[in-house]
């Protein structure tokens, strides 16, 4: 049984930085997602994402950035677009050789935070 953290299993910070770089290449190449990032300081966002992903994977530093709901408030992120972002992250992690156990746990985290990031559609009075 492997007792090292997922962070250590995948190769630590250098691998996470590479995953994040390739993740944003995919996200910014997606015409549906690209508009969300107009005017965003991408180097800063990438640094935040590296710290967040390291933390999710059990790395040495906890994520101490803004609350994810607060950080995404007012962006109008749809469930479909949230899922596409998750698909891009999974694809990059799989390309990096990340195991199924890690993918499963990353998926659980994505599922847990989805409701705080996705903007609920306004209810209509039918």
UniProtKB/TrEMBL annotation:
Domain of life, per lineage: Bacteria
The keyword Iron belongs to this UniProt entry's keyword annotation: yes
Cofactor(s) needed by this chain: heme
Chain segments annotated as coiled-coil in the UniProt record: none
Keywords: Heme, Iron, Metal-binding, Oxygen transport, Transport
InterPro entries (UniProt xref): Globin-like_sf, Globin/Proto, Hemoglobin_trunc, Hemoglobin_trunc_I
Native source organism of the sequence: Microbispora maris
Protein name as catalogued: Group 1 truncated hemoglobin
Family: Belongs to the truncated hemoglobin family. Group I subfamily.
């Amino acid at each position: 049984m492997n007792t090292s953290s997922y962070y250590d299993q995948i190769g630590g910070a250098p691998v996470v930085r590479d995953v994040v770089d390739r993740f944003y290449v995919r996200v910014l190449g997606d015409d549906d997602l690209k508009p969300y990032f107009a005017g965003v300081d991408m180097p800063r966002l990438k640094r935040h994402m590296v710290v967040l992903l390291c933390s999710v994977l059990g790395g040495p530093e906890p994520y101490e950035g803004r609350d994810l709901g607060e950080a995404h408030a007012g962006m109008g992120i749809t469930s479909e677009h949230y899922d596409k972002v998750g698909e891009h992250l999974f694809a990059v992690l799989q390309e990096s050789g990340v195991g199924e156990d890690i993918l499963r746990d990353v998926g659980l985290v994505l599922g847990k935070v989805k409701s705080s990031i996705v903007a609920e559609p306004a209810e209509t009075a039918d």
